[in-house]
């Protein structure tokens, strides 16, 4: 490009491409009360400058627009293309670009947008009016023609006045409709009517009868290529090296039509049908205008004096692509200033090829010394070390040296017999009478330290050299796990819980752009379930891995409420609501017991599962009634699972609608408030009220829970302290598990086999002496069967 230097500025501009209107003048003119730049061409065309001088324009941007009233109409109307071909390019509001010339046909009409009450209408639909007629109150038409009224819901929307000649016709041709059509001169489609000029015929229903309206058609010729002002560019100059030619720019003239074919332009005033614009066109050296770099380039708009008269106010328009180079001081290489100097190696107007050196920054050394530390390669550090004379020290010796060149010594090391170094550094020269050290500062490190630098690296003050590693034993105790125990037993929903698979299947992990992960589970029947992953969560399953029901697929703690819900809904599709509730509660129980045990076992504490199961049983003993059916239960009521199932069995016998319910997980605090025992409730709060209500209602407390047994002084039903199974036959095979006759909490209907022991409610005095033989004797008495079966009297 061509070098441009501006005096007083530390900036070098390289003109890589330019275009100038060499035979056009730009003048400042006042139009409509405002000033604007107008381009006067040699062919007496006037263009209005649309871009302000001093600004930048991009590729395909409009620079100027032709000032011409040739394509202006007097009113609105309908536009039709005759041989004109257009293309949709650029923004929608810019219109359609003409690719082939032809003729624009314009059917004028006057359209008033009213939006007034229909009572203000002063003419009828289809009436012929003269110019100046008041069609609506305070609205006068400007041309003569037939009136078309557009109204909706007694609101007058539009008044359209269609100029033309109206002819009453008895029998209209079938081709003549209200949509209208072009009728060419000499046409015999309308008998008795002579067509001399091209017109637009419409069938009109008037108060006088049916007829045809022949509307005039105005033709506007559109050339194939508009005239372009003369241009000159440095890219075409003889003295410009074509081998170094880069992006080329020019001003291209194009024509745009703002309306599509057949569009009705609603207006009272005139409109412009065709605009001729000068558009900036950038192209690569091979001539393609869609070069990838062209979309990111911009050109500067400049006004330069004419060559004939420098003092004239007439200017010429010039567009240039500049590559600006700003000369700045390198603060990294010269933090204090004064060590660097930049020289500009080009002059104003010089033509330089790509890659030419335009300026050079020189680093000046203030002190004499030896250059060291020059590195080469792609990863070389742009630093140079100068070893000054002050950085060396000469130590005289009188005996042979005990060190050699390259040794690293500290101040206490002996260089020769009876001669300590006194300084730390590296030996750079050894002679018979002296040792020269390059001064250095030693840093002692321990074994296992991590070095941050390599041998021979250049370092500055403040750089990290070594990362020291310290190890210490980490101690912990059970106190650290108590918050987790509390979270589990209170059944709280954990923060940032993991995502659980709602159904078993094969995991499909898709890693998308932006480090986002999409996980899908394909079930055995082909159903695909999508699991959205929140930001910050990580997938813990791999692509193709089989996942089970309620298995975690992301990191984080599991939500026991979600585990219960997933298993309940999954089993509900294959089993009844009672079995689904059992399965869901069993899975939630197993999860809670395992999680509590993992906290204690992490500290080396072993606790039997039965102690934790006592607490978990209380947490998982309730269901929430969704629909009471024909029972006396209300929606939202918390009921024991065994109780609601007993009621449903009774409903099945009587033919009533059973209650629908959902298992719930309660924290130990909430579970203690939802108890059937008045002794337990009285020990918690409002003792007087609870005991009074129990006495009035005649309640019975069957001492099934923990608190009521502790208060009374009985053994708690925790599976401890009973010797009922002490003499059982350990060698006998385990009885088969009957799912129908078992319950999750040890409650339920007894089996028919008398050999299976039951968890019976026994007196404290006889509990420890209770055995299987005694149970058989007790079962032999028919009066005790209800007690053994858990059916207590009311």
Question: Using DSSP, what is the number of strands?
Answer: 45
Q: What is the percent of helical residues?
A: 10-25%
SS summary, helix count: 12
The poorly predicted ranges are 236-244, 730-794
Q: What's the multimeric state?
A: single chain
Largest beta sheet: what is the strand line-up? 3-4-5-7-24-22-10-9
Tell me the fraction of residues in β-strands, as a range.
25-35%
Give a short account of the largest sheet: 8 strands, antiparallel
What does the average pLDDT come to? 79
The gyration radius over C-alpha positions equals 49 Å
* Alpha-beta content class: alpha+beta
Distance between the termini: 107 Å
The gross shape turns out to be flat
Write the layout of secondary structure elements.
Layout: E1 2-5, E2 11-20, E3 25-31, E4 34-40, E5 46-49, E6 56-58, E7 62-66, E8 76-82, E9 85-87, E10 96-100, E11 102-117, E12 128-129, E13 134-136, E14 139-140, E15 145-152, E16 155-162, E17 165-168, E18 181-183, E19 199-206, E20 209-216, E21 218-222, E22 248-257, E23 264-265, E24 275-283, E25 298-305, E26 315-326, E27 340-344, E28 359-363, E29 369-372, E30 385-388, E31 392-396, E32 408-409, E33 414-416, E34 419-420, E35 425-430, E36 434-439, E37 450-451, E38 466-467, H1 482-489, E39 505-511, E40 517-522, E41 528-532, E42 546-547, H2 560-572, H3 577-601, H4 609-619, E43 622-627, E44 638-640, H5 641-654, E45 660-663, H6 668-673, H7 678-684, H8 687-697, H9 706-712, H10 764-767, H11 772-780, H12 785-788
Helix pairs in contact: 1-3, 2-3, 3-4, 7-8
């Amino acid at each position: 490009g061509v070098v441009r230097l501006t005096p007083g500025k530390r900036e070098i501009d390289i003109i890589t491409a330019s275009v100038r209107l060499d035979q056009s003048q730009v003048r400042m003119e006042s139009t409509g009360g405002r000033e604007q730049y107008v381009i006067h061409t040699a062919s007496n065309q006037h263009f209005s400058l649309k871009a302000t001088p001093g600004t930048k324009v991009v590729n395909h941007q409009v620079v100027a627009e032709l000032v011409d009233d040739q394509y202006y109409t007097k009113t609105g109307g309908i536009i039709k293309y005759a041989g004109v071909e257009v293309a949709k390019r650029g923004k929608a509001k810019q219109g359609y670009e003409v690719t082939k010339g032809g003729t624009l046909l314009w059917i004028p009409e006057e359209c008033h947008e009213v939006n007034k009450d229909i009572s203000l209408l002063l003419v009828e639909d289809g009436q012929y009016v003269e110019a100046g007629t008041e069609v609506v109150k305070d609205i006068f038409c400007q041309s003569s023609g037939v009136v078309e009224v557009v109204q909706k819901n007694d609101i007058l929307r539009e008044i359209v006045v269609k100029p033309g000649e109206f002819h009453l016709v008895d029998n209209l041709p079938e081709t003549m409709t209200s949509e209208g059509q072009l009728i060419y001169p000499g046409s015999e489609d309308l008998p008795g009517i002579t067509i001399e000029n091209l017109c637009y015929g419409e069938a009109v229903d008037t108060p006088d009868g049916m007829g045809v309206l022949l509307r005039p058609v105005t033709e506007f010729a559109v050339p194939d290529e508009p005239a372009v002002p003369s241009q000159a560019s440095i890219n075409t100059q003889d003295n410009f090296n074509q081998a170094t030619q880069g992006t080329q720019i020019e001003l291209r003239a194009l024509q745009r039509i703002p309306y599509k074919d057949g569009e009705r332009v609603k207006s009272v005033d005139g409109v412009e049908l065709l605009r001729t614009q000068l558009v900036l066109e950038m192209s690569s050296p091979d001539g393609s205008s869609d070069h990838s770099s062209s979309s990111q380039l911009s050109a500067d708009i400049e006004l330069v004096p004419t060559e004939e008269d420098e003092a004239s106010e007439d200017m010429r328009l010039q567009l240039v692509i500049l590559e600006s180079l700003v000369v700045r001081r390198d603060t990294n290489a010269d933090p204090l200033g004064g060590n660097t100097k930049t020289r500009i190696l080009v002059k104003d107007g010089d033509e330089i090829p790509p890659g030419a050196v335009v300026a050079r920054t020189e680093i000046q050394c203030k002190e004499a010394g030896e250059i060291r530390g020059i590195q080469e390669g792609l990863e070389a550090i742009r630093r140079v070390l100068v070893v000054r004379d002050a950085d060396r020290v000469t130590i005289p010796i009188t005996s042979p040296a005990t060190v050699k060149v390259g040794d690293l010594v500290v101040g206490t090391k002996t260089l020769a017999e009876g001669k300590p170094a006194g300084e730390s550094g590296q030996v750079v020269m050894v002679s018979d009478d002296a040792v020269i050290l390059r001064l250095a500062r030693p840093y002692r490190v321990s074994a296992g330290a991590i070095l941050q630098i390599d041998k021979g690296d250049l370092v500055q003050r403040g750089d990290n050299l070594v990362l020291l590693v310290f190890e210490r034993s980490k101690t912990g105790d059970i106190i650290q796990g108590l918050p987790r125990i509390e979270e589990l037993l209170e059944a709280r929903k954990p923060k940032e819980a993991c995502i659980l698979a709602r159904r078993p299947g094969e995991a499909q992990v898709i890693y998308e752009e932006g480090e986002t992960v999409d996980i899908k589970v394909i079930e055995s029947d082909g159903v695909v379930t999508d699991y959205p992953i929140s930001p910050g969560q990580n997938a813990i399953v791999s692509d193709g891995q089989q996942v089970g029901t309620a298995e975690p697929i992301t990191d984080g703690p599991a939500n026991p409420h979600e585990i219960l819900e997933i298993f309940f809904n999954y089993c509900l599709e294959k089993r009844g609501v009672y079995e689904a509730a059992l399965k869901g509660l069993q899975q939630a129980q197993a999860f809670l017991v395992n999680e509590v045990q993992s906290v204690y076992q992490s500290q080396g504490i072993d606790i039997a599962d039965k102690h934790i199961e006592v607490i978990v049983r209380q947490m998982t003993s309730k269901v929430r009634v969704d629909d009471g059916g024909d029972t006396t239960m209300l929606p939202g009521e918390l009921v024991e699972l065994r109780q609601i199932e007993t009621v449903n069995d009774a409903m099945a016998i009587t033919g009533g609608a059973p209650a629908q319910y959902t298992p719930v997980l309660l924290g130990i605090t909430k579970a203690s408030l939802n108890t059937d025992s008045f002794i337990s409730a009285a020990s918690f709060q409002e003792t007087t009220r609870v005991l009074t209500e129990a006495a009035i209602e005649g309640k019975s407390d069957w001492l099934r829970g923990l608190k009521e047994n502790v208060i009374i002084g009985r053994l708690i039903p925790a599976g401890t302290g009973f010797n009922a199974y002490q003499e059982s036959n350990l060698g006998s095979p385990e009885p088969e598990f009957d799912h129908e006759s078992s319950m999750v909490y040890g409650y339920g209907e007894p089996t028919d086999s008398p050999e299976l022991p039951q968890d019976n409610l026994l007196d404290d005095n006889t509990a420890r002496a209770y055995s299987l033989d005694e149970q058989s004797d007790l079962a032999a008495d028919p009066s005790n069967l209800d007690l053994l079966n858990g059916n207590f009297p009311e």
